Amino acid sequence: xxxxEAWISPCFGYSGHxxxxxxxxxxxxxxxKQGTGKRKYVAQLSDGEQVRDVFLVAELQERTTKDxxxxxxxxxxxxxxxxxxxxxxxxxxDNKITREDFxxxxxxxxxxxxxxxLRLLSVSxxxxxxxxxxxxxxxxxxxxxxxxxxxxxxxxxxxDRFLDALMKSFLGDKEFMAAFRRAPAAHSMHHAYIGxxxxxxxxxxxxxKAFSLIYPQxxxxxxxxGAFLHDIGKTREYNYTRSFDFSTIGRLKTHxxxxxxxxxxHISTIKDFPEKLAVKLEHMILSHHGQKDWGSPVxxxxxxxxxxxxxxxxxxxTFMYDEARRNGAEGDEWSxxxxxxxxxxxxx
Length: 348
Ligand SMILES: [Fe+2]
Ligand SMILES: [Fe+2]
Hints:
Blueprint: H1 3-8, H2 16-34, E1 50-64, E2 70-78, E3 81-87, E4 102-112, E5 115-125, H3 144-155, H4 161-171, H5 174-182, H6 196-214, H7 220-229, H8 234-237, E6 238-239, E7 245-246, H9 248-267, H10 275-287, H11 303-327
Parallel strand pairs: 3-5
Antiparallel strand pairs: 1-2, 1-4, 2-3, 4-5, 6-7
Helix pairs in contact: 3-6, 6-7, 6-11, 7-11, 9-10, 10-11
């Protein structure tokens, strides 16, 4: 294996739909043993199936039909994914459910707009002490420590003494690393699960390392360090104890600004860290979405920032295609409509 292949090769191959389903079957058996109420996961549901199970309420909205009767739409989730649910015979006065509650839902799975939907017959609060929270938070199926090990080994090749000191400062920050291991990479678009940030950073760092070999004229140390740092603000942009949502500070400041603040705090501990290098790293964080209408306040203005944007986008897009495949059933020619990619994906 060449050096380039060694950097690019993933720690794990793509796990695929089947092995994921198999691990869900194991999880169901485990859950039944522990009496946590979970019978079947969302990813295992199929059209026409009757459901009586425990879910986490990820979203909830009261709505009114044209004739004035109330109904409830919800997104019900567990660690395998989420399903839209609708309750027609609903009275506002007896609603005791709010977002992030656990509920027991009874209903039938149907299809609406090419996507599975749960038509609810009833939904009632389910006691939190009876559930195992691990059943409800989606988590990476990769080995977090192996992903981290690969990142550390690429970062250890950085020669610039200030960037090397900066990387060591982050890797030695126990509180930061605990959040970095756990944070999702997004609210819903890509890698929206525990360990998602680490998985996405692992890919982005390796793509940038590969770019630096293909384009030897670029500053490899700056590019790789920028790749590691680009989404660190996500450790504070989301709440991820029960379901994934924006934190208040995340909503108000974005992960890009939060990332710059976290970066500055670490830089301030390194003696004589060059201000020009600090500003270049900040620019890479701020510009990594590539365009103002994709959330970046500035567009990339030097080649390492531009390459970082492409690496970030490449990994996010590839994830969305993989997710469209996971959302399709075995043997389907087309995926359900992908909101993220805004298209159907050809699976055959
Ligand atoms: Fe980002
Ligand atoms: Fe990113």
